[in-house]
Amino acid sequence: MEIINKKILRHLAELSKIELIEDGEEKLLDDLRKILEYFEELKKIDTIDIEPIAGGADLINIYREDRELLDELYKKQEKLIEAFPERGGDFLKVPPVFQ
Amino acid sequence: MSFLENLTIKKFHQGLIGREFSAVEVAKDFFSHIKEKDDKINAYLTFTKDMALETAIAVDAELDAGGNIGILAGTPLAIKDNILIENVVCMAASKILENYKSSYDATVVKRLKKAEAVFLGKTNMDEFAMGSSTENSAFKKTRNPYDIERVPGGSSGGSAAAVAVDMAIGALGSDTGGSIRQPANFCGVVGLKPTYGAVSRFGLIAMASSLDQIGPIAKTVEDAAIIFTEISGRDEFDSTSIDIDYKEDVLNPDFESTKNLKIGLPKEYFIDGIDKYISSAIGEVIQSLKSMGFEFREISLPHTKHALSCYYIIMTAEVSANLARFDGIRYSRLQNLISSASRRMTDEIQNLKNIYFKQRSDGFGEEAKRRIILGNFVLSSGYYDAYYSKAQKVRRLIKQDFNEAFKEVDIILTPVSPTPAFKIGEKIDDPLSMYLSDIFTIPVNLAGLPAISIPVKKTNGLPVGFQLIGKPFREADILGVGRYYEKNVNII
Predict the structure, then answer these.
(1) Which among B303, B267, B216, B206 is positioned nearest to A45, based on CA atoms?
(2) Could you give phi then psi for residue B221, rounded to 5 degrees?
């Protein structure tokens, strides 16, 4: 069974906002095919009744008071904004999304 | 260069407080040594000389005034390029970040600054820490100091190579699937990957958030312990960081109780296909530890062979989410498209979507693109259950294997990689074979455990290390056994 093909790859590239280079497409598809074929071995493992785990450490959810935790960092906001190519006040100025 | 060659953090500190040399002198020595050596090795991407000298001057002034200084004060360290130092360019070795100047300090950097460590510069790595050879850097290829035709390992290859040839006393790296331990192994230095949650990830450019940890690379286990205690502990800015004080346990191990720790050898790690050079080195380590009185037991981690698939599904899924933030506009890259002289948009980039496409396609390297696309695939509707959800279930089984094993033993000993450092170019065109070089380090990240790579003594030729894996938050155990080995192996 074919796991991935050109059509799926192009769709994924679109979602990823990555342009595929004409002559790199075949190689990428081939690499992905090999990797996905390798993943097939997972199907053999019995995982009935096994709950998925979200991370390596058994961390519990942490709640905290809704206060300005990052006030020290907010002072550094300006530095991040300075890195914008164009700004309008404290906002990032970009070309229109819809035309 | 014999002075820098034998310089550990401890020796440096003693010499400094004994006024045998000043912090400024040593910092300058390091920069001239780097100038001489790094043309060939390519370990560094950015230098922070002004900042380094400023700190060194301050440390010398404190000593002049008769003050007490901390153990890391004045110590020249290298920082991996995915860790933020305020006002210093931080690229994660990616073109998409080539103009990004950090707007704040990572928590680990803040802590090292408080300890008055001297930062020499930022080290080369695989782009966004994605790779096992540092060949995926967008800027340069770091070479293995033991054989410049070979890779230093990765992704923290610059940090490991720098420490190996005395271009820093110690360094910080990050480890998502082996990125501290594997290059330490290839370069003959010590690399510690702490327990998930032991060290704050705030200010680390994220690759896979459930797996990433920052840790030290150093010449000795003791030095690694010193850096680790300085950077570990709870941080308000990383909700996964844990409030734990390691100091006493880690810095002053009680070797009498260390000797009672039982060491497990997982049979799944001693398989055919391991390079003979590696298996004989590991055999030597086991013999040394046995003759020091350590008790060994064979254990089983039955799901080991599934770790690689499991890891590459979970990691790429997290990569695709974490790298979505790089749109080529924030973090300063747009000026590459629009020259500052003329702000007129060209047709090509008239709308936002086209900018994203253009910037991400030009800005990311092959491996980053491959992982983003693969991550989007395993998370897609229709594939999610078969890949991502399945992998998270297998991850639990892998973790359970370790939990079971740790009922019988305190520490697990394994090889770090199946082969010593490979040739530059050998695996770069075959991603799967590159991924396979991490099979012994990956399970540790999936289970969130601490592990250390320690060089095997008395080996000629390419360096080889062994890995000690500990129970969660028991860095003290693996560091203790490591130090015991280091202390005793030469005299046996």
Answers:
(1) B303
(2) -65, -40
Q: Please answer whether residues B170 and B178 qualify as being in contact, where contact means their C-beta atoms are separated by less than 8 angstroms.
A: no
Cβ–Cβ below 8 Å for B334 and A85: yes
> Is B10 part of the contact surface with chain A (CB cutoff 8 Å)?
no
Residue B126 and residue B135 in contact, taking contact as beta carbons nearer than 8 Å: yes
* Count of A-B CB contacts under 8 Å: 167
Amino acid at A42: L
Of B343, B361, B399, the CB nearest to A19: B361
Helix (H) or strand (E) holding A87: strand A87-88
CA distance B193 to B441: 10
**Cα of A89 to nearest chain B Cα, Å:** 15
Q: Which residues share a beta bridge with A92?
A: A87
Contact between B101 and B57 under an 8 Å Cβ cutoff? The reply is no
User: For residues B417 and B133, is the Cβ–Cβ distance under 8 A?
Assistant: no
Q: Using omega within 30 degrees of 0 as the cis cutoff, is the peptide bond preceding B155 cis?
A: yes
Contacts of B357 in chain A (CB under 8 A): 17-19
pLDDT tens, position by position, A77-90? 888 888 788 888 88
Residue B433 is predicted with a pLDDT of 86
Q: Is the dihedral of CA B104, B108, B112, B118 positive or negative?
A: negative
Q: Does B399 touch chain A (CB under 8 A)?
A: yes
- Report CB contact under 8 Å: A52, B392: yes
Cβ <8 Å between B236 and A69: yes
Across the interface, which of A9, A47, A84 has its CB nearest the CB of B390? A47
What is the predicted pLDDT for the residue at B329? 83
Which of these, B139, B128, B131, B132, lies nearest to B82 by C-alpha position?
Answer: B128
Active-site residues of B: which are they?
A: 80, 155, 179
**Residue A5 near chain B (CB below 8 Å):** no
Task: Please check whether residue B170 is in contact with residue B218, taking contact to mean a CB–CB distance below 8 angstroms.
Answer: yes
Any CB–CB contact under 8 A between A79 and chain B?
A: yes
Give B332-374 pLDDT, tens digit per residue. 666 655 543 344 555 555 678 888 898 999 999 999 999 999 9
pLDDT along chain B (492 residues), means of 10: 85 97 98 97 98 98 96 98 97 94 95 98 98 97 97 98 98 98 98 97 97 98 97 92 89 93 96 86 96 97 96 97 91 59 51 87 95 97 93 96 98 96 94 89 97 86 96 97 91 46
Q: Is B376 on the interface with A (CB under 8 A)?
A: yes
* Exposed / middle / buried, residue B53 (Cβ in 10 Å: 0-12, 13-18, 19+): middle
